[in-house]
Amino acid sequence: MKERKLDNNKARFSLSKEDIIKLKQNDNKGLISLVKDNLTNSNSLVFILEHLGHLPSNFDYSWLVSLTTHDNENVRLLAVKNLAKQASVSNIELLSRILADDKSSMVKREAVSAIGRMRATVAIPYLIKALADEDPKIVCQAIRGLLVFKGDKIVDKSLKKLKNHENELVRNIVSKEFFAKRKNKLPELRHTETYHFLENVVVNGDVRDVLKFVPDESIHLTFTSPPYYNARDYSIYPSYEKYLRFLEEVFRETFRITKEGRFLIVNTSPVIIPRISRAHSSKRYPIPFDLHYYLVNMGWEFIDDIIWEKPEYSVKNRIGGFQQHRKPLAYKPNSITEYLMVYRKKTDRLIDWNIHQYDSNIVEESKVKDGFETTNVWKIAPKSDKIHSAIFPVDLCKRVIEYYSFKGDIVFDPFAGSGTLGRTAKSLDRKFFLTEKEVKYFEYMKTLQSKDKQTKGDVTKFFTLEQFKNSLQ
How far is C-alpha 69 from the chain's CA centre? Predict the structure, then answer.
């Protein structure tokens, strides 16, 4: 086959992937000649290296070595990646030199990966040396290679030293592999189950008092919108610090009652406390950002931030004054977004473990139907009525419940308000447990629930705190 030199701007058109495959299968001469003709053409070299694919056992790798010192970072990276396919200990000194001398973190990580893929004891000292690198991704790659030899005294000792490593990912890997406390037996309650006395129950009382009577690991999903700091008549706190400490108490208990690896979604947004006079300024509190610190420190793992976008007509107008005078520094945009901060109860287990606890028919029945939201911006209009000024929209509850729970699961809202989460959960074949401190909202929920069709098995039970305590006996 006639070799062709690749044009810098038309690499993908002057030579195809199929052409490279043919050159590779015949012999190395044509391929080496093609590479030599394009040593100064980085785009062409990248294209060639990207499409080498699986390499035959008799493939001559020697020409790749010269490319590991090429000026272009991507060429060096792909050269090392292809050398790794050989998985030969003969390359270990070369890869060690790359790890020591290359200026690119990407190339160095690929070199560590290549050493690890050898799965040979001769690689252990090189991987242990890489544990001292400043790049945590290189350290993680070295750990991955060393875990193949877990049980080797030198390897175990080297990895255990990283227990207090500066990087949290490194600490988590080492903690999981060497220091995680495993339960000797499965809990009496299966992961898919909850306690009957929690199912379809609403309790009127301070959530902190109610949760004292809720067992560990009994809730599958929590979705809530905490009362905004001093922005409503029903949510007055002596200080912002006291407000955050209150939420910390609630979500620490929520963490305890949440099943391993399951989710908490908190709907919040910054809140403005109006100024008391024109001589004073208003104060804006960044609730979701300040609350995040408390949540991750009590064991919740941050997963996602979802933006709830509302129509501009539905929010308070803050831009009016600026529209008139247009003076710099006085710009105040209309706030049309809130955050749904998604957290998962920290665990050594992967999401797949949670899914595999369910029967295959439940997993199939719970699959999300077409039309689901593909981005983290959800455009949903807010809801309110004469009784409650900030009701959860049904569409918002529906998405959260469908995306983060299975049929038969129990969902929890510690600040239930008008109880939209509970009614939506029931309509989606889930169970619910709600708490609400304000009597007027508790009574309002009763009137709304009475309008729903209820069978004997799913009748909603409304309790005071004392009644709830008595129901446990």
Answer: 38
How many beta carbons lie within 10 A of that of residue 238, not counting itself? 8
List of residues 6+ apart from 300 with CB closer than 8 A? 251, 255, 264, 343, 344, 345, 346
Structure tokens belonging to residue 217: 């690991």
Helix (H) or strand (E) holding 466: helix 465-471
CA distance 231 to 218: 32
- In 338-393, where does DSSP find H-type helix? 351-356, 360-365
Residues in the chain, pLDDT under 70: 1-14, 25-28, 181-187, 230-235, 274-281, 386-390, 450-457
Q: Which fold has domain 196-471?
A: Rossmann fold (3.40.50)
Q: How far, in Å, CA of 205 to CA of 436, rounded?
A: 6
* pLDDT tens digits along 313-325: 888 888 888 889 9
145: left (phi over 0), alpha (psi -120 to 50) or beta: alpha
294 is written with which tokens? 């408390």
Using a CB cutoff of 8 Å and minimum separation of 24, what contacts does 73-78 make?
73/104, 73/106, 73/107, 74/42, 74/46, 75/42, 75/45, 75/46, 75/49, 76/102, 76/104, 76/107, 77/104, 77/106, 77/107, 77/110, 78/45, 78/46, 78/49, 78/50
CA distance 15 to 4: 7
Cβ pair 191, 354 in contact under 8 A: yes
Cβ within 8 Å of residue 264, ≥6 positions away:
221, 222, 223, 251, 254, 255, 258, 295, 300, 342, 343, 344, 345
Tell me, which fold does domain 61-179 have in CATH? Leucine-rich Repeat Variant (1.25.10)
Q: CA 93, CA 257: separation in Å to the nearest integer? A: 52
Cα–Cα distance for residue pair 184/461, rounded to 1 Å: 36
Residue length, the chain? 473
Residue-wise pLDDT for 346-374, tens only, equals: 998 999 999 999 999 999 999 999 999 99
Asked if residues 345 and 261 have their Cβ atoms less than 8 Å apart, the reply is: yes
In this prediction, residue 7 carries a pLDDT of 45
Contact yes or no for 49/75 (Cβ under 8 A): yes
Return the closest-CA partner of residue 266 out of 383, 421, 430: 421
What single DSSP character describes residue 226? Answer: P
Check if the beta carbon of residue 472 is closer than 8 Å to that of residue 461: no
Residue-level pLDDT at 453: 58
- The burial class, CB within 10 Å (0-12 / 13-18 / 19+), for 428 is middle
Amino acid at 403: Y
Could you please report the per-residue DSSP string of 119-169?
Answer: --GGGHHHHHHHTT-S-HHHHHHHHHHHGGGBTBHHHHHHHHGGGG-SSHH
Q: Is 244 helix (H, G, I), strand (E, B) or coil?
A: helix
- Show me where the domains of the chain are located: 61-179, 196-471
For the entire predicted model, the pTM comes to: 0.74
